[in-house]
Amino acid sequence: MNAISAVSHSLLLQAFGKSSSRRSAATERRGNGGGSLSPFACLKRATPTEFDNLEQDYQLDASSQKMNLATEVFRNEVGKPQLFQAVKKAEIIIACDDFLSREPLPPLGNPEFLNAATELVLGKSSPAQTQGRVVGIQTKNNIDGLALAAQFLRQKTTRDFCLLARPCNTIYWKIFKAAGFNCQRYQYYSDTKGELNIYGLVADLMTAPDEAVVVLDACAQHPTGLDPSTDEWKLLLHIVKCKKMLPLIHLEAPGLASGDPNEDAWPVRYFADSGIDLLCSQSFVKNFGLYNETVGQLMVVLANSAQLNAVRGQFESMLLDKNAECSSVYASRVVAKILSDDKIRSDWSQTLKEMHQRVFQLRADLSKKLAELKTPGNWQNLVEQCGYHLYSNLSRSQIRQLKDRHIYVPSSGRMNLTSVQSTNLDRLAAGLNDVSQAAKGDSFNTVHKYYHSA
Description:
Helix content: 40-55%
Radius of gyration: 27 Å
Oligomer: single chain
Strand order of the largest sheet: 2-10-9-8-7-3-4
Number of strands: 14
Structural class: alpha/beta
């Protein structure tokens, strides 16, 4: 062994000895059970969400009569996710297309899908589209679209104030706070009357800061399900114009609220036709049954077409910087095929109408049963609702009482009506009657007022 090799060998032995001593000392400090050098040993269990806990409790419930009303999936009469024959037909056509491109999508997504999605919301030959004032971005879903919009507006514009409904989907607040917005609530729902508080809504928008971003639900507002009338939407647009606000409209699953996508998208079309700047985030998950292949769109409608290239370029730059990937290419092709093929689109529209009719019948049956039980409250409101969720405004105590009866409801009181079948509707009515009777006379109880949600 030459001199250099000898020195190297000696240093290695010394280093190994010191390392072994450190490991031994660390092992002694940790005790017999702490000898593992796993990098994951320090990790703590993640805090489960409310829906995780509800699902776990539901799965552990051994009762054959249990009901989970906390899900977001639109279910058919036998409790399975709703299937669309239109989706099956589109899938077959796509699978048999030998010339289907395998090239990566452009940064903003599948052009055929984006064109079809824009036309679904704005209608054929809309002024905004024909004048080149629309930018479409493919997203994973509507929530992903809202998050992208919030990040873009905060990073690329001077807007820093955001108005959110009270109440609204709890994730809205998290999205805009995380993006760096100064968030403020505007009145939307009257707890005492159980109806849209249009006077409070107008007053809060009128006194809000100018040039704020205002988040609005186009239909079946989450969670209340209460929507402004046509005249009230016109009043809101007038305020938005006067205050130079930027509306960000959330349109989840057009077609599920009323059974007609055109009717659900009307507020977006009305705002877009007025010649103002706006953004709209929509989803194609629940209204196509694409729960495993989610896809959505963020649409930017500009008042001035001269700004189109700048807006498109900034979105492309942001998405490339984030190394963001579009949602499912497959799902975007399915939606584009359905919306561009008149016959398949007709099948899809018919399924939406049938889904709407089923929910309407569920509301009527539940209302009738509660009336027979003489349950306190005006249950006729059930029949006047739209969408497949029911906003109950149940108290936490009443939700716990329903859970004792094997009926699982989230803390928001928002229940999925499609999880109810003819075999368990009576049980739900009985449970609601019991908790309503128990709370009768309680001045804090508002369970008797039910309104639509989606």
